[in-house]
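Notebook, p. 212. Picked up where the previous page left off. The plan for this session was modest: take the two constructs that came back from the sequencing core last week, fold each one, and keep the raw output in the notebook itself so nobody has to go hunting through shared drives later. Recording the first one now, exactly as returned: residue sequence, then the structure token string.
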Amino acid sequence: MNNIYQRINEVRKAIGYVQKDKDVGFGKSSYRAVTHDAVTGMVRAALIQHGVVIVPSVVTSEFHQAELVTTIGDDGKERTAHAKQRLYEATFQIEFVNMDEPTDRIVTQQTAHALDNGDKAPGKAMSYATKYAILKLFNIETGEDEESRYQQDEFDIVGAVDYILASTSIAELKMRYSQRYKLAEDAKSKDAMKAIIVAKDKAKKAIETEMAGQA
């Protein structure tokens, strides 16, 4: 009877390159991505054939408090409200189990983030973590460079920029910029990081101009 490592190797032999199956973003920022369903569909038959069961579970999780965002309406009045989306951050344990000897297993951990204005963020994050655990363990080629970008549909770039531009002081700007840039950096979204830097410089110039006018 094969152990879990031998079974993993048999699954590797049975699968190959997974095709990108989803268009994400728009315009110059659009790209093709590999979804959780595509990866699962590719490996499912081989997992069943070789008796490997995937068991995901939550290790730690946190829903970050929605930020207060101040905007200026067409009438010139400031309005403060909670951001529409909240960030969910979790670490998942993804176990690959020998179904004939359940104590024989490979255990990995993946950290994932998701933004959502409803109740879908935990599911998004678990799907993301499970997908990448499968891709890495089975050495599946996708042709995508996850080192250079994140699933941009899960990062609210517009909201981050608006939040920074609403800063009313240099101290507040530093705090807001630091928060949003860290999130974009963790999400590996280069487009978001660039947009946040541009917004920070624009907000800084506006605040300094206003302060000079008051002097």
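Okay, moving on. Second construct, recorded in the same format:
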Amino acid sequence: MFCFKLQKIVHQIHFMQNSFGICQLSVIPVRDQPSHPSEMISQLIFGDTFQILEIEGSWLKIEKTDDAYVGWVDEKQVSLFDDLSLHQLKSSPKFLTSEASSLVLKGAIKEPLYLPAGCSLPFYQEGKCKIGKEIYHVTSSNVFVPNKEDFDSDVQETAKKFLNAPYLWGGRTHSGIDCSGFSQIVFKMLGVTLNRDAYQQAEQGKLVDFLTEAKAGDLAFFDNEEGKITHVGIMLNNSQIIHASGRVKIDRIDNQGIFSTDLQKYSHKLRIIKRYV
């Protein structure tokens, strides 16, 4: 019993001395509670960094460094990251993957790893990135540095890359994505940081007074009968919206809300429109 307790204490000290971490798998679930059956509330994708807030068994309560989102991850699926490495990463150029699946070969034996779009490539240089001492060979040439200056010209094309991705609560990839995960990852690929959930994103940006003034890249938010914001989509122009509902799709929007082409009826009631660039 004493050895077990000692081992647990050493384990916790080990993590607290390295209070930051990074995702080194293609995608991992972020849970509401510290257990695998718990609801997935979001995902980390390769290169996402976080601070460790709490430890419970083999689970880490984390706060993402870019959007302050809090949840639980399995310690076996992440790597530790020290303060100096995080500072160096933040000050280095930010390279991202652009395709739905980019092949990366891990280590000397070159184990395959398929990264979704929008993954950060830590310390990328000449086709390689690294996490700690581990080297990753990036085979794809479709690696880029997001540029906010190109937001207006690139937002439609970037958003449409996700067309027909299936809806998945908490998802952030082509394999499954929710409405706010969709807007967040698209904006990340365009150099703009958004919070994770729709209601949080609605607290950012500047209000667009009228739908007729909306332009590509504005976000439209929709509420339920209680007035709670429950959905978000990306405006393509002042009459079309791309959003994740069943799948990522394009629908018509007017002052009443989204008119679903699939359902042939209004599916979401418009609340507000916000602009971020």
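Notes on construct two before I forget. The radius of gyration is 20 Å.
Flagging for discussion at group meeting.
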